[in-house]
């Protein structure tokens, strides 16, 4: 057999090839095909990161990744038992018994031969068999054997009986088995209980009793004993069976790792060493002379060879002894020669060196002579320049005076000299002029000029001050007039003039002082805005044109349109375009800008260039798409929002350094618009001379082929600009097909589709896309409705399938039906192929069912559709998947065996011909169908079909209902109205129901004394509530009860704990219902029975609330039965095992019934035997069974009680609740007690889990223990969230702490120290003169001032503490900082207010005692009324001499200290202000320097 479809791997290969052709996959090619991996003539195709082999289809066939395996057709066959010829597509399916067909998918119908004869009348087909359905009571193959069947109810223990040909089958309830479900299944036989649990069998269930340490239904869950975290000190908990085990960290022990191990207990240290216990380790403090981990090694002090001059060393404990015998030396190390130097002959600290019978003096630099007695004069040659003073280091006269009191002479430093420089100079010889401009003190672009011991700043325009720090506010003089506001700028200002009032001229000019009259008599047209301006004293204006207009007066229209396909051909000159770009600062590359409006989705807006190099913009499916193409480069962008709604949109497309750019303005893209960019690939886009050719609104046919839309533009355009130059449509040849202006008809207003379709505006016309079932140009025509099963007639229609639809198809139709079952649509093979059913859609229980095999499983749609309303349904088949559509929603309802609709197959709608049985699919359909389609083919009762084989039987035109009123269904004078296949009855006022068959009484308001009227089947009741206080009411049935009483119902509300609510008796028979200790008590005695039935409930009802009490026989049909009390719908108690019959004596003459004989409270409805006991007698009620009042009742209608809340018993804001003769208080938060009199202790329940509770009024506060948080202190804080473990240490959280588990090579609480400890010199080198010292945990660097860090590698930022005050700016310097102060402030930290200080000095010299600083400041603040100079001038005149002297003193002091304004340099003042260079002198220790 030939395989009729492409194999799966060939489909994959073809799909891959098409994806490459369409450009879906990456265009970069692989080179894996170069090795020719494909065999047997196969073709190799590169993919993204692999290759694919397309096997040859001629001759011998192959398969596999490399086409190296002989083709096996069974690999793709749908059957299980398959044989094939290798290398061909021929295969053969061997079918199992009961199946047939090419692919073994068709079931053999064994009933086709009619094997069943009387009495085996009905044949039932099964897979590979059949059976004959026997009459009831018979079984066996010939149905002649009498068998027990389901009529005999053979199945026990609630088993379900199912009829079988040979008898019956019992489907047992869970927990039972056997032929008649007589055997109780032992659920424990499968040993479901795990882990040694004991299994207890029960009916249809089992129960597992777990051994300790396990839980769960099957005891399958091992209880985690580690959940409580029993292991301390970061021990690891291991959960084991019924217990846990702690693995302790090194240094801990105990069951819970609670004890720290004392490693010193074993006395590991030797030789008298002291042991120090540590966590997980110990250390030995060795005595002198020993070393090693345990101090086990005696140090050999002779190893360093301490004895000199050939002496012999003898080792001792913690010492050694040098034997100097015969060496010629003496001393501890035999190091001493004859002491010729003992008389100290060498002077000035020189070193005396012993010699043989003599000595030698080694002089310090700066001294000479045999005994170093001569001091060399280093200043003799006058080395200091620029007036510097030369000072000998060895001259004691300079000590203390020039170099500080604590400075001492050291002969090592005595050589040389020190130059004490004049101010402004530095260097070893005072040869360097200090550059005060190096710190860039001049601000805001000021130029610094260096001077001797100072600098001067030349300020830029707009700034002043010593350091140019003051920005001159040009707006201070208020230059802007007439309400304009001034904006200060650098050395200038800008005036922003106000908007003019209506009818007034605007202000202009530099200072807003000139009325702008340039718009007087302006010629701006077409709604343009006139903008006046002033230039060189000349008034003029500019017209700001609206969209669609251009020129100086906006008089030229730029709008044009295309009503038929065409295009404009425009040529530009590249040289002129380049010049214009430079003039207008526009995009320096290619661009086209225009506005457009249209309603068509696929059109070309413009095409610029030729086939090899072009830029285009088009509409594709309503979206904007721009493309730039050149040799080797292509860029494209798409704006993913529909722009074909007829509104104007402004679009700009250009290519620049960013790549291809599209900017859209309009609806949804306001402001700067929407910008899309494609940066492009390499090489970049290369424009050519062909881009001088621009086609607008279309392009020639040879160029249209390179667009996706392929069609010219229909619509309107305006404001066309090419390379920033406007293109006016009036200047273009008229024969190019465009029209000036924009004329557009709104085709869809008003709606031409009459609301029965969607109007599509096609710019020059329109189209109506009609909603189903409408059609036609204006959607006014409706496809006809067809009625099936009218008046229960047998109707159907059949059609021939004209063309094949394959295995993916859909069936859709409008349905209107009330019948829940019926065949809707069925596909069968053609009669020539056997007419087998392969697809059916039918109704079952009002839902849509879909099936493909006659007796196979059906798929069900999820909603009820047989509602009588017209609704559109769709059944779509995709291969095997079935999708149901309803009300716009789609549901995947399952899968069916794959079917294929072939040409010539038959379609049956609404039912089947008489010779075919349709009962399997619910019988014939009854209802209306409309717009029935198979895919797009209409099947509407012959209207759309033309096949001669089509047949329509008893199908009526239109949707016609049955005459449902012809049987006159409405009773009691009701009027019948026909609805679709149903009827409604308009009933008179006193009748209701579908057929007006139910009489109602309450509509006439028969309860004359009030009460709630309740309709009964044969009358009505007037239900009241009543209040009783030992006021009994008597009743008599007068023989009206139809049957004995088997139930009593009452509604009561009371606080009486003991009462008689209902009592009836006649002779020895009696009935009593009462309260005993707040519980319901019932006593019944009937006839000649010896014992009285008496039982008491267990639910209290005397609580002041309404309760519903029901007392009834448990088995109403039995002669005797237990009685049951129900309270509020819940069973209270049963009288079992006591039993008695129903109460019949109430119908006897003389029988009386009393209610509330000894009762205080309220009663609602009371019914005895279902008959209401009225509190107000009404003899008009028609029902035959009634109780009537005897005597005059004395109860009070309505339920009332004492006004217990009138006195306001609830305190502290509590709300009183009337609980029927008792009150209850709903207390506010924080209060409790009967009357809310007690302040509630909110801490009583101990709500704080890990903390103390503080009680407040109506609340509490939890004060958590350290390590816990939350409102209830129930959250254990995770201290590891902010842990400080270093070097990758693992943090383990604990209560209010954490522990760092260190990795290899680190130790310490935070793993901060290397282990073994690092050592100075060997492992650590301190930078920047830091001092290294060894500690317990390793080396540590002590940094000199100005540096920080673990190795002193980081310079300290002195500005980090923000030392500069009053807005000063801090500049970081080495070991110092400099503050740049704002005007009026000075000092090292800008803390001196210069202006305030000067005022205080002036006040000190002013003779006026009434003049104070505050008065001067107040007068200065009133600068608008009194100028400041009027106050300051007299003061300055009086204090001029003192002021000059003070300023002179300040200047001299500042020059001496080399301190510019706001600079602070501690190091410059370390040696009493002297300009003395100490480079070659002894450095002052860091701890003594001034910080």
Structure description:
The protein has 1491 residues and is mainly β. It is built from 7 helices and 125 strands. The strands form 46 sheets. Strands 51, 53, 58, 59, 60, 62, 63 and 64 form an 8-stranded antiparallel beta sheet that branches. Strands 69, 71, 76, 77, 78, 80, 81 and 83 form an 8-stranded antiparallel beta sheet that branches. Strands 90, 92, 97, 98, 99, 101, 102 and 104 form an 8-stranded antiparallel beta sheet that branches. Strand 29 and strand 30 form a beta hairpin. The longest helix has 18 residues, at 1440-1457.
Q: Characteristics of this structure?
A:
disordered C terminus; 8-stranded antiparallel beta sheet; mainly beta; 1491 residues; 36% strand
């Amino acid at each position: 057999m030939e395989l009729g479809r492409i194999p799966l791997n060939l489909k994959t290969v073809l799909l891959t090839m098409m994806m490459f052709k369409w450009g879906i996959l990456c265009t970069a090619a692989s080179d894996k095909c170069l090795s020719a991996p494909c065999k047997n003539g196969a073709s190799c195709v590169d993919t993204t990161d692999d290759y694919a082999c397309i096997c040859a289809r001629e001759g011998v066939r192959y398969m596999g990744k490399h086409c190296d395996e002989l083709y096996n057709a069974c690999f793709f066959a749908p059957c299980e038992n398959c044989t094939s010829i290798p290398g061909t597509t021929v295969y053969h399916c061997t079918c199992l018994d009961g199946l047939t067909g090419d692919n073994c998918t068709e079931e053999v119908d064994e009933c086709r031969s009619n094997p069943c004869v009387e009495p085996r009348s009905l044949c039932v087909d099964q897979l590979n068999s059949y059976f004959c359905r026997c009459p009831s009571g018979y079984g066996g193959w010939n149905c002649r054997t009498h068998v027990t069947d389901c009529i005999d109810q053979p199945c026990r223990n609630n088993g379900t009986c199912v009829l079988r040909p040979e008898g019956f089958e019992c489907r047992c309830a869970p927990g039972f088995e056997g032929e008649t479900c007589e055997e109780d299944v032992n659920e424990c036989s499968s040993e479901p209980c795990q882990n040694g649990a004991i299994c207890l069998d029960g009916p249809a269930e089992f129960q597992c009793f777990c051994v300790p340490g396990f839980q769960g239904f099957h005891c399958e869950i091992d209880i985690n004993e580690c959940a409580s975290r029993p292991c301390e000190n970061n021990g690891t908990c291991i959960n084991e069976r019924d217990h846990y085990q702690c693995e302790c960290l090194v240094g801990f022990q105990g069951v819970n790792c609670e004890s720290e191990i004392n490693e010193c207990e074993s006395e590991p240290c030797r030789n008298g060493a002291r042991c120090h216990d540590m966590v997980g380790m110990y250390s030995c403090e060795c005595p002198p002379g020993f070393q090693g981990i345990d101090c086990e090694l005696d140090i050999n002090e002779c190893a360093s060879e301490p004895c000199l001059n050939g002496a012999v060393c003898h080792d001792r404990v913690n010492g050694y002894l040098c034997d100097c015998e015969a060496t010629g030396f003496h001393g501890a190390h035999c190091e001493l020669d004859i002491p010729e130097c003992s008389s100290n002959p060498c002077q000035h600290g020189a070193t005396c060196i012993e010699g043989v019978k003599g000595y030698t003096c080694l002089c310090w630099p700066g001294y000479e002579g045999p005994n170093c007695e001569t001091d060399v004069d280093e200043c003799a040659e006058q080395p200091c320049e620029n007036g510097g003073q030369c000072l000998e280091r060895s001259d004691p006269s300079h000590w203390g005076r020039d170099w500080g009191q604590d400075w001492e002479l050291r002969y090592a430093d005595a050589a040389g000299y020190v130059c004490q420089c004049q101010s402004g100079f530095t260097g070893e010889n005072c040869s360097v002029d200090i550059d005060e401009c190096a710190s860039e003190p001049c601000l805001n672009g000021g130029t610094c000029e260096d001077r001797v011991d100072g600098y001067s700043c030349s300020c830029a325009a707009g700034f002043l001050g010593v350091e140019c720090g003051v920005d001159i506010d040009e707006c201070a003089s208020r230059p802007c007039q007439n309400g304009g506001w001034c904006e200060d700028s650098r050395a200038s200002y800008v005036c922003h003039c106000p908007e003019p009032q209506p009818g007034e001229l605007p202000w202009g000019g530099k200072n807003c002082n000139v009325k702008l009259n340039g718009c007087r008599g302006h010629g701006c047209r077409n709604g343009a805005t006139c903008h006046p301006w002033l230039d060189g004293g000349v008034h003029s204006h500019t017209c700001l044109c609206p969209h669609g207009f251009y020129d100086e007066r906006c008089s030229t229209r730029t709008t044009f349109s295309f009503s038929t396909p065409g295009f404009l051909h425009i040529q530009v000159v590249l040289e002129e375009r380049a010049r214009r770009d430079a003039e207008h600062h526009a995009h320096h590359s290619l661009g086209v800008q225009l506005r457009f409006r249209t309603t068509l989705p696929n059109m070309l807006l413009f095409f610029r260039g030729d086939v090899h190099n072009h830029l285009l913009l088009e509409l594709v499916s309503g979206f904007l798409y721009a493309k730039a193409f050149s040799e080797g480069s292509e860029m494209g962008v798409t704006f993913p929002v529909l722009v074909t709604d007829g509104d104007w949109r402004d679009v700009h497309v250009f290519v620049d350094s960013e790549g291809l750019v599209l900017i859209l303005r309009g609806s949804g893209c306001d402001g700067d618009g929407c910008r899309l960019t494609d940066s492009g690939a390499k090489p970049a886009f290369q424009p050519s001379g062909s881009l001088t050719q621009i086609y607008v609104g279309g392009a020639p046919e040879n160029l249209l082929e390179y667009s996706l839309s392929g069609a010219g533009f229909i619509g309107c355009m305006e404001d066309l600009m090419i390379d920033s130059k406007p293109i006016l449509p009036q200047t273009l040849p008229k024969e190019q097909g465009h029209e000036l202006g924009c004329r557009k008809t709104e085709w869809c207003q008003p709606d031409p589709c009459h609301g029965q379709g969607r109007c599509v505006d096609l710019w020059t016309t329109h189209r109506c896309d009609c909603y189903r079932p409408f059609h036609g140009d204006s959607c006014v025509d409706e496809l006809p409705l067809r009625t099936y099963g009218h008046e229960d007639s047998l109707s159907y229609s059949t059609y021939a399938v004209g063309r094949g639809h394959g295995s993916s198809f859909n069936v859709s139709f409008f349905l209107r039906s009330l019948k829940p079952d019926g065949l809707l649509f069925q596909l069968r093979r053609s009669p020539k192929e056997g007419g087998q059913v392969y697809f059916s859609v039918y109704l079952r229980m009002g839902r849509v069912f879909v099936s493909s095999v006659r007796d196979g499983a059906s798929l069900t749609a999820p909603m009820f559709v047989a509602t009588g309303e017209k609704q559109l349904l769709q059944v779509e088949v995709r291969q095997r998947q079935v999708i149901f559509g309803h009300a716009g929603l789609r549901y995947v309802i399952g899968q069916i065996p794959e079917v294929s609709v072939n040409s010539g197959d038959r379609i049956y709608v609404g039912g089947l011909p008489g010779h075919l049985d349709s009962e399997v699919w619910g019988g014939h359909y009854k209802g209306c169908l409309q717009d029935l389609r198979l895919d797009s083919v209409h099947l509407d009762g012959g209207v759309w079909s033309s096949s001669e084989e089509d047949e329509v039987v008893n199908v009526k035109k239109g949707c016609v209902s049955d005459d449902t009123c012809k049987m006159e269904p409405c009773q009691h004078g009701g009027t019948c109205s026909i609805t679709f296949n149903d009827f409604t009855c308009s009933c008179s006022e006193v009748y209701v129901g579908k057929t007006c068959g139910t009489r109602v009484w309450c509509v006439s308001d028969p309860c004359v004394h009030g009460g709630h009227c309740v309709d009964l089947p044969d009358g009505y009741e007037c239900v009241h509530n009543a209040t009783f206080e030992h006021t009994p009411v008597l009743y008599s049935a007068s023989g009206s009860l139809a049957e004995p009483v088997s139930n009593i119902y009452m509604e009561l509300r009371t606080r009486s704990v003991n009462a008689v609510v209902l009592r009836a008796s006649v002779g020895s028979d009696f009935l009593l219902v009462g309260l005993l200790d707040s519980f319901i008590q019932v006593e019944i005695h009937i006839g000649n029975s010896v014992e009285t039935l008496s039982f008491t409930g267990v639910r209290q009802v005397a609580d002041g609330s309404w309760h519903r009490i029901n007392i009834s026989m448990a088995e109403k049909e039995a002669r005797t039965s237990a009685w049951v009390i129900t309270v509020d719908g819940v069973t209270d108690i049963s009288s079992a095992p006591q039993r008695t019959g129903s109460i019949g004596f109430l119908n006897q003459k003389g029988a009386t019934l009393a209610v509330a004989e000894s009762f205080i409270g309220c009663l609602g409805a009371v019914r005895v035997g279902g008959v209401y006991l009225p509190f107000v007698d009404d003899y008009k009620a028609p029902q035959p069974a009634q109780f009537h009042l005897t005597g005059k009742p004395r109860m009070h209608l309505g339920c009332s009680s004492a006004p217990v809340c009138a006195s306001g018993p609830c305190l502290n804001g509590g709300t009183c609740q009337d609980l029927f003769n008792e009150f209850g208080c709903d207390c506010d938060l924080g209060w409790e007690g009967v009357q809310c009199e007690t302040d509630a202790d909110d801490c009583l329940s101990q709500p704080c889990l890990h903390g103390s509770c503080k009680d407040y009024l109506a609340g509490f506060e939890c004060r958590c223990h350290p390590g816990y948080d939350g409102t209830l202190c129930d959250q254990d804080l995770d201290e590891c969230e902010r842990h400080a473990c270093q070097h990758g240490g693992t943090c383990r959280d604990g209560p209010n702490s954490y522990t760092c588990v260190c990795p290899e090579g680190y130790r310490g609480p935070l793993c901060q120290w290397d282990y073994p400890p690092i050592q100075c010199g060997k492992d650590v080198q301190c930078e920047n003169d830091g001092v290294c010292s060894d500690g317990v945990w390793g080396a540590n660097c002590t940094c000199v001032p100005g540096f920080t860090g673990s190795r002193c590698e980081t310079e300290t930022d002195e500005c980090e503490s923000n030392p500069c005050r009053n807005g000063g700016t801090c500049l970081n310097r080495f070991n110092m900082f400099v503050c740049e102060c704002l005007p009026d402030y000075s000092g090292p930290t800008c803390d001196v207010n210069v202006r305030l200080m000067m005022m205080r000095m002036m006040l000190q010299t002013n003779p006026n005692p009434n003049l104070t600083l505050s008065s001067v400041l107040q007068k200065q603040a009133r600068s608008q009324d009194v100028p400041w100079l009027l106050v300051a001038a007299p003061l300055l005149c009086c204090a001029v001499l003192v002021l000059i002297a003070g300023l002179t003193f300040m200047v001299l002091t500042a020059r001496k200290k080399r301190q510019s304004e706001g600079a602070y340099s501690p190091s410059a003042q370390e040696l009493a202000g002297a300009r003395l260079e100490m480079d070659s002198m002894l450095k002052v220790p860091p701890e003594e320097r001034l910080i």
